[in-house]
Write a structure and sequence with these properties.
N-(1-d-carboxylethyl)-l-norvaline Dehydrogenase, domain 2, 712 residues, 48% helix, 2-enoyl-CoA Hydratase, Chain A, domain 1, six-stranded mixed β-sheet, globular, Rossmann fold, 28 helices
Length: 712
């Protein structure tokens, strides 16, 4: 049975796509669209044709299950052309999210009517692609090249109201159902039936004529600083330029050629890997898909500092009421004032209405009364990273929380099992490692203790999505997934500086390659005192025994109170207004002092060596995490690094990079580094195994049923 149906309603033919969940443009949908159009044209009772999507949305783009497979007839361009050339007026009734190919279908229709809540966009650039079914040619003809460039290079959708103002749709209506939208569209259809001709988007020229070529040069200048090595957005600009410089057929040919270049690029392959990896991260081995999830209707956050306040904001942003507990009214007032200032800043920038700010603040209950825990579905502790304090708090939570409540610790490194053992319900205890600032950063590491219930993990993965986070499950090892690898990455950065590089040189190499920030800039942003506390704990636990310790410079900076951006100085000094970083001679002097004390004769270090050591450290430790069963799959590690640590998404993630470059080459580079320094490069049995078997990390299935027990 075809996923596309045709029916005659009065004198209007209604073509409806029913391919849940988002009416993706699969081969069967394309075939159905073509057949139903022909049926409508041949129906003597139909004087106009409306195409729409059943369910929650109009067509929302390509069928991702067909990615990487040979294209099957009919191709989307031929379907769109048929709707555009129809002898009877074709009208798209839009609701939900007409995106990508879906929006391209609607632009091929001769008219468009939208529900007021509709969001319209061409997000292909987010997969390293560009619109390949006439989107770069039709959109500029409808809205002009300036807006088309903005929409296509960013991939961000626009609301129906703006689409109406810019000429992308003819009418917008507030409707409460698809049936009501169809009725409004039928009324519109009756007004245009009597017209003898109907506009073909490809024949429009008023919005693409008399355009200065400066808009393309300016678009390139504007976007280049944000690209971090990406090329897809630049190809989008060239495709839109074709709508101005070429006729439609030549512009379409140019679009297809540029699309193919994008399609065949490492950039697109990496971004598509990232896209699928986020989806795969939700799959929890051993979990019955019918396992009921726990309701999360009320939350408590203990601590209203930087992390606690950000976590609370994440919940109320999603409409979940939160009670925030502090130890004193002073701390509570201070934390709540910061939350208010954060929201007020967003309102001042026009990204949030005052009404919505007031609504969110109304969901926050600031209190000193711990009894609010009794009604909470989830309690998240967000206090200092000190085990004794956390154990004391969890013992108190345990005495108050209702049966079935989730007890979560926002810890970045500490032992979840030790925290859980401070309660009488270790199966209900889990780690929720938010990243700072928690209301902004997308990653949420969900840390499973040895007894954490699987349904809690599944509940938190769903919650992560609701609060607009990307969740991954991490094992209970020191540093979990992200920080455990980051410690090795940062250690190499510090060693590079001790051996002869500067923080500026290391950061520049990383940022040129595509990282959002280099390792030293990240340390300053996160707070150098955070790493200092962890290193102190590691020293007490003899963590560095038999390892090469390399954070002497960082410790010296912390002893001087140089904790990073929050105090205006760390590895760099920061402008108090702009936060722009600058080199600081005082830091270079400390580095020189440390080298002299350690008897190190500094040497020239190449950019290639910097990248090889930084990335090699991530890959080496990532494979050790996998072989110990602390991550479900290699792609989860990639999700972690892209969403939490600024690894460039168009590079796929550290594990994807290892497969792309070749395990044999990566292992040989690591062995070279190990020969020069055998203390800071622990052996990875998995890397050796994969090299000898010529297998890929992406295909490796770790044994997560009995992960290696934590030793520190």
């Amino acid at each position: 049975m075809s996923p596309v149906t045709y029916e005659l309603k009065e004198n209007i033919g209604i073509i409806t796509v029913n391919n849940p969940p988002v009416n993706a443009l699969s081969q069967a949908v394309r075939q159905g669209l073509a057949e139903c159009l022909e049926q409508g044209i041949n129906d003597d009772g139909a004087e106009a044709l409306i195409v729409t999507g059943g369910g929650r949305t109009f067509m929302a783009g390509a069928d991702i299950s067909e990615f990487g497979k040979p294209a099957k007839s009919p191709d989307l361009n031929s379907v769109i052309n048929a709707y555009e050339d129809s002898s009877k007026p074709t009208i798209a009734a839009l609701h939900g999210t007409p995106l990508g190919g879906g929006l391209e279908v609607s632009m091929g229709c001769q008219y468009r009517v939208a529900d007021s809540k509709t969001m319209l966009g061409l997000p292909e650039v987010k997969l390293g692609l560009l619109p390949g079914a006439g989107g770069t040619q039709r959109l500029p003809r409808l809205v002009g090249p300036e807006l088309a460039l903005e929409m296509i290079t960013s991939g961000n959708p626009i609301p129906a109201k703006k689409a109406l103002e810019e000429g992308l749709v003819e009418e917008v209506h507030e409707t409460n159902s698809l049936e009501e939208l169809i009725e409004k569209t039928m009324v519109f259809a009756q007004t245009i039936i009597s017209k003898n001709t109907h506009p073909k988007t490809r024949e429009r020229s008023e919005k693409v004529s008399n355009v200065s070529s400066d808009i393309f040069d300016n678009a390139i200048k504007k976007i280049t600083p944000k690209l971090r090595g990406r090329e897809g957005p630049l190809r989008c600009i060239e495709a839109v330029r074709g709508a101005v410089d070429l006729n439609f057929d030549a512009g379409l040919k140019n679009e297809r050629e540029l699309f193919q270049i994008c399609h065949d690029s490492d950039e697109s392959e990496a971004l598509i890997h990232s896209f699928f990896s986020e989806r795969m991260a939700n799959k929890i081995p051993g979990l019955d898909k019918d396992t009921p999830l726990r309701p999360i209707n009320k939350a408590v956050v203990i601590g209203c500092g930087t992390m606690g306040g950000g976590i609370a904001m994440s919940f109320v942003n999603a409409g979940i009421p939160v009670s925030v507990i502090e130890t004193s009214q002073e701390f509570l007032d201070k934390g709540m004032n910061i939350i208010k200032k954060n929201y007020a800043a967003t309102v001042s920038k026009g990204r949030l209405s005052q009404t919505n700010m007031d609504k969110r603040m109304g969901l926050l209950n600031a209190t000193l009364d711990w009894d609010v825990i009794k009604d909470a579905d989830i309690i998240i502790e967000a206090v200092f990273e000190e085990m004794n304090i956390k154990k004391e708090i969890f013992s108190k939570i345990d005495s108050l929380a209702k049966k079935g409540a989730i007890l979560a610790s926002n810890t970045s490194t500490l032992d979840i099992d030790e925290i859980a053992n401070a309660t009488n319900r270790p199966t209900e205890v889990v780690g929720t490692h938010f990243f700072s600032p928690a209301n902004v950063m997308r990653l949420l590491e969900i840390v499973r203790g040895s007894q954490t219930s699987l349904d809690i993990l599944a509940t938190l993965m769903k919650l992560a999505k609701k609060i607009k986070k990307v969740g991954i499950i991490a094992g209970n090892c020191d540093g979990f997934v992200g920080n455990r690898m980051f410690h090795q990455y940062v250690m190499q950065a510090h060693l590079l500086v001790e051996e002869g590089a500067t923080p500026e040189q290391v950061d520049a190499a990383a940022e040129k390659w595509g990282w959002a920030m280099g390792p030293f800039a990240v340390n300053d942003l996160a707070g150098n005192d955070v790493g200092w506390l962890i290193r102190k704990r590691h020293k007490e636990e003899n963590y560095y025994e038999g390892k090469k310790y390399a954070s002497t410079v960082a410790d010296r900076l912390c002893e001087l109170g140089r904790f990073g951006q929050k105090v205006g100085k760390g590895f760099y000094k920061y402008d108090p207004q702009t936060r722009r970083r600058e080199s600081d001679p005082e830091v270079l002097k400390i580095i020189e002092d440390v080298r002299r004390e350690k008897g190190i004769n500094p040497r020239e270090i190449s950019e290639d060596e910097i990248l090889s050591r930084l990335h090699g450290a991530l890959i080496n430790e990532g494979t050790r995490i996998l072989e110990e069963g602390h991550a479900f799959r290699a792609s989860d590690i990639d999700v972690c690094y892209i969403n939490g640590y600024g690894f460039p998404s168009h590079r796929g993630g550290p594990m994807w990079q290892a497969d792309k470059i070749g395990i044999d080459k990566i292992n040989k580079e690591i062995e070279t580094h190990r020969n020069a320094d055998n203390l800071s490069w622990p052996e990875s049995n998995l890397l050796n195994k994969l090299e000898s078997s010529n297998e890929k990390l992406g295909a490796f299935v770790p044994d997560t049923s009995n992960p290696k027990k934590r030793t520190s």
